[in-house]
Amino acid sequence: MNRMTLPLLEFQAAGSHDDELRASGPRSQGGRPSVRWLVLLALLAGVLRLDAGEGKPPNIVLLYADDWRHDTLGCAGNPTVKTPHLDLLATQGVRFTNAMVTTAICGVSRASLLTGQWMSRHGNSSFAAFTTPWAQTLPGLLRANGYWVGHVGKWHCGKFPAEKFDVGKAYSGKHWMKEPDGSEVHVTAKNQADALDFLRTRPADKPFFLTVAFFAPHAEDGHPDQFRPQAFSAEWYAGVTVPVPPTANPAATAKLPLFLQDPRNESRKRWSQRFDTPEKFQRMMVNYYRLCSEVDATCGAVLADLKKRGLDDNTIVVFTGDNGYFHGEKGLADKWYPYEESIRVPLIIRDPRLPAPRAGATSTAMALNVDLAPTLLAAANIQVPATMQGQDLTPLLNGRTVDGWRTEFFYEHAIIKSVDFIPASQALVTSRMKYLFWPDHQVEELFDLPADPREEHNLIADPAQVDALTTLRQRFTVVQAAAR
Fold it and tell me: Can you spell out the DSSP letters for 239-291?
C-alpha cells in the first residue's frame, strides 16, 4: 500500500504531520509505520477509500469553459440556466464558491492556469505565448512523468505547440466551423467528438491528462447574432424569460469611472451589441444559456464515457472557466475589469479518492486559477516547481482548515490595444474589502464586499475609510511585488 492508493488526504490526526505519525506509531521491521497502524488511523478518521486504480496515478480531465461566470450553474442557485450534468458533478465532488482568476481575459488566464503563475511572471499580457519554460508547466510536467497528454479546443496563447502534446487539436473563434469536406459542425460538438476520440484511442497502459477547452459560451464577436447555439437546445429554453440584473440600468452605469462610461470603451461597445434593449437582452441571454447547456451536455457525454470505460473511479475531473462575464450589469459586457462579475468563476473538483463525506461539499476558501497546476501535480505525485505561485488545494478538498490560507490576492490586467479600448486595471481583493486601481487614469475605487456585494458604492472618499484605505494601499504594493 502506498499513498497513491489512498484518498487525497494526509491521513493523520488533526494538526499532526506525517513525520509525527512516523515517530509515534507502531513500527514495521524496516522502521516505517506498520500498515496495520496506518489503516487503523485511516479507519478511525473515517477516510479510508481505496481507489480502483490500485496505486496507479490518477487520470485527469479538465473541462474548461470560456466566459462562464461563477453563478451560471443550477447548483450555484441560478434559476434559469440548465446544467444537470455539472450539477451532478458538484454532488460528487467539491465546489469552490469563492474561486477567482488573477486576470480576466482568455489568453492570460489560460497561461496562468497552465503555468501556475501570475501574468507578471509568465509574460503573456494578452494572447501571446507565455515565456515560462514548457518543462515547468502543468502539461509539460505531466507528459515528462509518463502521462498521455491531450488538448482539444481553444488555446489562445500564441501559436499552438501541437508537438508538445500527444494529441493536440486547437480551434476556436466561431460557433459553426467548416470541416474539410465542406460540412459545418458546431464547435461544442467538435469538442465532444475530439474528447471522446482521445478517450477511445489513448494508450491503456498510461495515465492521461485531457483538457477539453470549450469556445462556448464565448460570443462570436463580429457576428450579428453573437451567440449561435445548436438547434437541439432550443426546446430547453422555450418560453424562458431571463431575469434582468438589478444593476443593469443607467443609474448603475453612471456610478462607473468616467472612462468606463465612454462609448469608445470596448465593454460599452459590446453592451450595445448585446444588451441595449429588453428584446435584445432576452434573445442574447437565452442563447448564451443555450450554449452553456450544450457545454454541460458535452461534459455529461465525457463523464458517461469515462464511466463506460471503467475510468471514472480513478479520474480526477475539474470544471472551471477562464474568466467571469458581465450580463449587462452596470451597462457592461464581456470581462476584463476587477469587478465581481468578471473575476469570479465556477470551480468543481471531483476526485474519487476523496473521503465519501466530501461528496457534494462546498468550500468558501479563496481559490485561484493559479492553484490548479500545483493541485493537479500534487495529485499525480509530481514535485511542484518553485516557480509556480499558486497553492495546492488538496487540504481544502479534504475539508481541512488550513492556517494561513490566503485571504487576499493581487489582480492585474494590461492595456489591450489602447487606454480607451480596454484600460489597464489592478486590484487588491480581500475577503472583505476590494481596492481597485486604474493606473492609466490614476483612479481608485474601494468597496466593502459583504455590505455591498454588487459594488455600487465607491467608498474611496469616505472619511470613515481613511485608515482602511491606507492599509490597503500598503498591502497592494506588497502583493503587486509578490506577483512578479
Answer: T--PPPPTT-SHHHHTTS-HHHHSTTSHHHHHHHHHTSSHHHHHHHHHHHHHH
Let me know how many helices (H) and strands (E) the chain has, helices first: 15, 18
Distance CA 138, CA 116 (A): 8
Q: How many CB atoms lie within 10 A of CB 32?
A: 12
C-alpha cell at 285: 441571454
Q: What is the DSSP code (8-state) at residue 52?
A: T
Number of other CB atoms surrounding residue 160 within 10 Å: 17
Residue 235 φ then ψ, to 5°: -65, -25
Mean pLDDT of the region 229-246: 97
Domains of the chain and any CATH numbers: 3-45 (no CATH), 59-397 (3.40.720.10), 411-482 (3.30.1120)
Determine the Cα–Cα distance for residues 389 and 409; give it in Å rounded to an integer. 11
| H or E element in which residue 305 lies | helix 278-308
Cα→Cα distances 417→254, 263, 266, 420, 426, Å? 25, 16, 10, 8, 17
pTM over 0.90: no
CA–CA–CA angle 259, 263, 267 (5° rounding): 80
C-alpha cell at position 359: 461528496
Q: What is the pLDDT of residues 389-433, one digit of tens each?
A: 999 999 999 999 999 999 999 999 999 999 999 999 999 999 999
Helix (H) / strand (E) containing 177: strand 176-178
CA dihedral over 451, 454, 455, 459, signed as positive or negative: negative
The DSSP code sequence of 372-411 is: HHHHHHHHTT-PPPTT--S---HHHHTT---TT--SEEEE
Of 110, 127, 134, 59, nearest in space to 387 by CA: 134
Cell, residue 363: 468550500
C-alpha cell at 471: 492599509
CA distances, 305 to each of 93, 195, 225, 245, 470 (Å) = 18, 10, 33, 37, 54
Q: Which residues pair with 44 in a beta bridge?
A: none
Name the amino acid, one letter, at 134: W
DSSP three-state, residue 307: helix
Residue owning grid cell 499552438:
160
For residues 46-66, average pLDDT: 70
